[in-house]
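Quick entry between incubations.
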Amino acid sequence: MTPFRRLRQERLAAERGTLFAQAELAVALVYPSPYHVGMSSLGFQTIYRVLNALPGVAAERAFLPDDVTAARRAREILATYESQRPVADFPIVAFSLAYELELAGLVHCLDLAGIPALAAERDAGDRRWPLVVVGGPLTFGNPLPAGPMADVIVMGEAEDAAPTLVRAFRAAGDKRALLETLAATPGCYVPSLHGARLPGVLAASDAHVPAYSQIVTRQTELGDMFLVEAARGCSRTCDYCVMRRSSWEPSKGSQALPHSGSAGQSPATPTRSPSGGMRKVEPERILARIPEHARRVGLVGAAVSDHPRLPEILSALVASGRGVGVSSLRPDRLDDEVVSLLARGGYRTLTVAADGASQRLRDQVRRGTSEEDLLGAARLCRTHGMAALKVYTLLGLPGETMADVEDLLRLASELSAIAPRLVLAVAPFVAKRNTPLAGSPFEDIARLEERLGRLRVGLRGRAKIMGDPPKWGWIEYRLAQGGLAEGRAVVQAARAGGGFAAWRRALASDQARSVLET
Ligand code: SF4
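Done. Structure below.
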């Protein structure tokens, strides 16, 4: 038995909630990051359950190996966890992509599965290859670079589209007919037929909200936490964010498929925010989803703290003796009640976002977070005995100068004097399509490094600075703004080892000269 197979079996044995099924149609669901990341994805777990609930369908999971280089060297065949079958044996192979740099993982997974990475290569020979489907959060922004690898890309929330796709697969005589049917289906982007024209994103029917964990295991980034959606979407309008209200709201260009009713979910309806964009789930429905055995519960959503009944939900969880986690806290929504409940639920690092070096920049991108909100979060963190305050922020927003960075330095110094410990998580600003800042340039890498260096020196001994080197932000930017040519460059970069130099060479090659093919 190879070490890769042994690891899969050990992880499988540690899971609770795994679905084992045999059916006439098998789907391999592949996450292009390692297991501990993929199993923390609520969307991935939801599609796993939705597919397995369809009559005659069995879905199994596969993940990018933890050590891709070792797997490539050992010529390890990518296989699923449930049956240990090679992924290439499945008629449908579906990927969930969360963000741009996972595109390299998509190429690695296809290579390790022995499936030609480019759709055009799969169509060229006589062999019948699996249908390669791509979905996931990346499709809210710009999935074009996944186009060369995908036969079809499902845009947006895929819960209702998954059964539609399965029905089309069963009905189609051949691949050509299938792709033509899918190309005429709302929310399905077929690169070989649509070129670079993307359809609007899908919104799943309310019956699929809240999403919740199918499998709980200690071996994820979040430990053995049971995840349940408290809200879907966001009613705010931060100019840089693909989850902002007007990027995806059904009434503004996205489309909803009729709900198939096949996932066995209750038809109760979550409430939509009067300001639009956010679907809030009633506390009773959230609590009803939590199994008796779950000792820690994570509330998931783009803006969970905007849920008006969050204190009620947290109170019930804490009263039941459970630990709690929340995926997104807005500092302007924090108060004594919420933070004290979080502390009683074992939440130790109060995590908020500033997303702008200065108030001027936060106002410019309509972040809606003030300096006083952040100072208030630091005070609440101290008052309720939390271990640390973690603040996410962006560097390199349009028009940023060193004066803005000095402003961040001053504010971070003040925060560090209040909070027991300060962690500043800094990410370079990457303009995303489908947002008002789409098309904004990426800041010069050397300038970003200089600004990061200034923060490191200025906050030495007072704050921990976290964040990937800005050069990776530049690659993310090229992919976020790029088209099909950049997708072909991903294949080249991944196979050349995936280091920065490999990416730069691939993105500079003839294949990737074009930016924005639409
Ligand atoms: S509050 Fe968060 S999720 Fe909502 S638009 Fe702003 S950044 Fe996006």
